[in-house]
Design a protein that fits this description.
Blueprint: E1 7-10, E2 13-16, H1 22-27, E3 29-32, E4 40-43, E5 49-54, H2 55-59, E6 61-64, E7 94-97, H3 105-112, E8 117-122, E9 129-131, E10 147-149, H4 151-164, E11 166-171, H5 188-199, E12 204-208, H6 227-244, E13 249-255, H7 275-282, E14 288-294, H8 314-317, H9 319-334, E15 340-346, H10 362-374, E16 379-382, H11 402-413, E17 414-419, E18 428-434, E19 441-447, E20 454-458, E21 462-468, E22 478-479, E23 482-483, E24 498-500, E25 503-507, E26 511-517
Parallel strand pairs: 3-20, 5-8, 5-16, 8-11, 9-10, 11-12, 12-13, 13-14, 14-15, 15-16
Antiparallel strand pairs: 1-2, 4-17, 6-7, 17-18, 18-19, 19-26, 20-25, 21-22, 21-24, 21-26, 22-23
Helix pairs in contact: 6-7
Length: 526
């Protein structure tokens, strides 16, 4: 939408660009929005905002080394299970972690505050993880696998999911060890995992066959694995699921790494299998279309792909929409009408950049949720809950990072009914029905301009929650000017709003504001 000096009425949205003095017009753009007239676009899953727990966190093993540990002497445990890293990667990029303590009270309390959610336990490491036959797990993985998932560790996942109101999403072991002598995938490991989950009182809500089949070799697939082999294996997986686990959603393909037109094949030698070829070979069977999105690879793996200056740019933030459009076109061709699930995403791949743990990335985090909800995506799973630099929580202290506080505000204020707030030059504005309040509306205003304020004009009073930081690269984030932190007994802080009367509300440069309008009287929110 282009700016205008008069009122534009369309789709029930009233937007006005108002100029005060010539100086104000040059510095501040004002938009008038009537929350009562914002039309309904659709709905999202109640567990729309979700998160990943990497399988390697559950088993223990080597995951992306945090930047602050890069110069430290290698841990003696780095040699433990040293082969359990993605094929072809630089082992110096990883550091050993003990299995995550899923009974930790702080971790459970903070995860429960984001409920309801899906918790995806997967990742590249899951493709080659062996699930033990009995309570007596082997000390080393059998041939064809790189790690062992014991009953004890999977039971911890089940108990955690129950405690924090998270539904489990996972993927299958697909490495050489999960195949017969001819290289065909066998369902033994999958059957064992589902059976044990039921026996332990748990439930798997949805499953992908393989994590990121576009990069199958990286995940331990047999040499020469191609789209035809995937299609053959996926058909066997679907047959197993329909016969043995008919109540579990089948997700797929869970692809990543493509930017070309859907029908084009990757360049020779790229190691990438095109999703178009995967879907053409695998046939029907999906209950939801899953994909992954990272805007780039972090400087840990590819220095220079991203910069601090670009972190608030439209080109960077719009990347999530470009990826969605690419995979949506494939969904429309091969699985029309199926919901879209973004089962893995974060600031960048390879554990995130150093600023992934700061307020600077919170603009991307919330803008991505707003864009994808508006586009009808049903689930977005951040990677990760508490590992490496892109975790919502610090992996050592389990204290919230900036994106966690943003996630908590989204969870408390944004409902499942998505409204059309229009498209505005100079501001990113999203709207949902207010969670838990009839006919009320929540607006999310993201001002990515580092120097210029924008103004919203509302006809009714609102309650304001503004996130800011003294420095965009700060780990500390403020809500209405007060730093957010846990209490002495890990109590979550009270989110105190500032009441704004009807009229103009300034959205300061490089800030994010939620505005709840209890008296919106929007009929779409009945």
């Amino acid at each position: 939408m282009t700016r205008s000096s008069g009122f534009k009425v369309g789709m029930g949205i009233v937007i006005a660009a108002l100029a005060g003095s010539q100086q104000a017009a040059a510095q501040v753009t004002t938009f008038a929005v009537d929350p009562a007239r914002l039309p309904r676009l659709g709905t999202v899953d109640a567990r729309f905002q979700s998160y990943n727990l990497e399988m390697v966190e559950v088993t223990g093993g080597r995951f992306w080394k945090p930047y602050r540990a890069s110069a430290a002497a290698p841990s003696a445990r780095d040699a433990v299970n040293a082969e359990n890293v993605p094929a072809g990667s630089n082992s110096d990029l990883y550091a050993y972690r003990e299995p995550i303590d899923l009974s930790n009270p702080r971790l459970r309390a903070l995860a429960a505050a984001l409920a309801p959610a899906y918790m995806r336990v997967s990742g590249t490491w899951a493709n080659s993880t062996y699930f033990a036959e009995s309570d007596d797990a082997p000390a080393t993985p059998p041939d064809g696998f790189r790690a062992v998932l014991s009953h004890e560790r999977w039971k911890a996942v089940i108990d955690f999911a129950r405690a924090v109101n998270a539904e489990i999403v996972t993927s299958m072991a697909t490495s050489v060890g999960a195949r017969d002598a001819t290289g065909r995938w066998q369902s033994d490991q999958a059957r064992r995992l589902f059976a044990y989950t039921r026996s332990a009182g748990g439930r798997i809500a949805a499953a992908e066959f393989m994590n990121e089949p576009t990069l199958a070799a990286m995940g331990g697939a047999p040499k020469g694995y191609d789209a035809a082999a995937y299609g053959r294996d996926f058909k066997a997986f679907v047959a197993f699921m329909r016969a043995s686990e008919p109540d579990v959603m089948v997700l797929g393909p869970g692809s990543i790494g493509e930017t070309a037109a859907p029908q084009s094949s990757p360049q020779s030698g790229s190691g990438l299998i095109s999703t178009h070829d995967l879907l053409a070979a695998s046939g029907p069977g999906l209950d939801a279309f899953s994909y992954h999105h990272y805007g780039a690879v972090s400087q840990r793996c590819a220095p220079g792909q991203t910069t601090l200056d670009a972190a608030l740019s439209e080109a960077w933030l719009a990347g999530t929409g470009r990826t969605l459009a690419f995979y949506q076109s494939l969904r429309d061709e091969f699985a029309p009408g199926k919901p879209m699930w973004l089962t893995e995403t974060a600031e960048t791949a390879c554990g995130g950049n150093p600023w992934a743990s700061t307020f600077l990335d919170t603009f991307r985090y919330l803008d991505q949720l707003g864009r994808l909800a508006r586009a009808g995506v049903q689930m977005v799973a951040h990677n990760t809950l508490a590992a490496s630099d892109y975790g919502l929580l610090d992996e050592k202290t389990l204290r919230p990072r900036s994106n966690y506080w943003a996630a908590l505000l989204w969870r408390r204020l944004m409902g499942t009914i998505v409204l059309d707030a229009g498209v505005h030059d100079g501001m990113h504005l999203y709207a949902h029905c207010r969670r838990g309040a009839r006919r009320a509306v929540t607006l999310l205003a993201v001002n990515t301009d580092r120097t210029t304020a924008v103004t919203l004009r509302l006809p009714v009073s609102s309650e304001r929650y503004t996130l800011s930081a003294d420095n965009l690269q700060s780990a500390e984030v403020k809500l209405n000017g007060t730093a957010l932190e846990l209490g002495p007994n890990d109590e979550l802080p009270r989110f105190t709003a500032v009441t704004s009367p009807p009229g103009a509300i300034e959205i300061a440069p490089a800030t994010i504001t939620f505005l709840t309008v209890e008296d919106a009287k929007n009929p779409a929110c009945d």
